[in-house]
Amino acid sequence: MKASDGNTYEYDRVLIATGGNPIVPPISGVEKENISTLKTMADAERVYSMKGKIAVVIGAGSIGVESAISLSHRGIKVTLLEQLGTVMPTVFDREAAEIVQRRVESFGIDVICGERAVEFTGNGKVTGVRTNSREIPCDMVVMGIGVQPNTELAIQAGTSLGLLGGVEVDEKMRTSVPNVFAAGDVCETYDIALERKAINAIWPCAMEQGKVAGRNMAGVEAVYPGSVRMNSIGNFIGQPAISLGMIAVPSEGSGAESGGEYQEVVRKTKDTYRKLILKDGRIKGAILVGDTQKAGIFSVLLKKQVDVSAFTPILLSHSLSFMDVIPLVRERADKFYEPEFKELMDTHIV
Question: Which residues pair with 245 in a beta bridge?
Fold first, then answer.
């Protein structure tokens, strides 16, 4: 392996963990001054040093929403622009997204959904964002559209790429090239909820994949069971909100495994919203708004893919605790084999 300084390094096994690059859309004028992506610390410092009073944030995903609120806290007037129909469209369904949008708007942020940026205007320095229906004046732009796998090194190494453009790996995080492993945002892994390969570019998945890759590289056999998409936004909007796995029953052509019987179960009050997506009684997705303290229970049950049909009412109850699912853990001890679950199974329930 040759490094940028010209030195060459020999290896027995090597891990590609080059992460992802921010998506820069092919919009006319994107090279103008005071336009930046937000992915790295260098990006954050660049945005922080921008001089301006009116900002447009493009993309209302997690990064976009958090950026918009942070800029608003600095006294900058912000417009949040999203080309799809709701804020955080890949994270929440419409009902949950409407709750989040109201919270975002409470910071004085203008939210525009269903419009896409087509041009950045200005002579050298950005002065506006033209959409397919209007022009929004601004003197700074932050793009939070998402990330894509940084596969440059992997391609040079000769590894195969998957259908989504990430590095293909097996359950041991091995690529198609012998002794070359990959982990994190650069690769595609099996998604437990979708039942297909996906790119889940989040820290928890990268960490778990790195551990599995490291063990196998060291000669200790380990298997990665699959990833689960997780996103939360509570610390920024002042109301906890999180989603796990699917956010809606998959439609035909969505790419998710559509066989089996799907069910959506919803419970909502004035200030809270809970939604479970089940397939043949197994959790495939969950959305929690207003009360997310028990999200870890849903995460465990989703990853274990056990039938929770008999426990659905209690899972949607606000009094839910892990003790409520101990009978399920004991019943499916073959799935809950880790030491921490063994300790729970030995707990006496009064």
Answer: 285
With beta carbons less than 8 A apart as the criterion, state whether 56 and 121 touch. no
CATH number of the domain located at residue range(s) 240-345 in this protein: 3.30.390.30
Q: Are strands 241-245 and 282-289 parallel, antiparallel or unpaired?
A: antiparallel
- Kindly report, residue by residue over 167-219, the tens digit of the pLDDT: 999 999 999 999 999 999 999 999 999 999 999 999 999 999 999 999 999 99
Closest CA to 138 of 24, 22, 29: 29
Contact 240, 69 (CB under 8 A): no
Mean pLDDT estimate for the chain: 92
* 46-51 CB contacts, 8 Å cutoff, 24+ apart: 47/140, 47/142, 50/140, 51/139, 51/140
Backbone φ, ψ for residue 102 (5° rounding): -60, -40
Asked if 250 and 81 count as a contact pair (C-beta separation under 8 A), the reply is: no
| DSSP state, residue 74 | T
Q: Are 302 and 245 in contact (CB under 8 A)?
A: yes
Read off the pLDDT of residues 87-127 as tens digits, 9 standing for 90 and up.
999 999 999 999 999 999 999 999 999 999 999 999 999 99
Q: Does the domain spanning 14-19+148-217 belong to CATH 3.40.640.10?
A: no
pLDDT digits (tens, 9 = 90+) for 46-60: 999 999 999 999 999
- Gap between the Cα atoms of 36 and 19, Å rounded: 19
Paired with 140 in beta bridges are: 55
CATH pick for 20-147 out of 3.50.50.60, 3.40.30.10, 2.60.40.10, 3.40.50.300: 3.50.50.60
Helix (H) or strand (E) holding 108: none
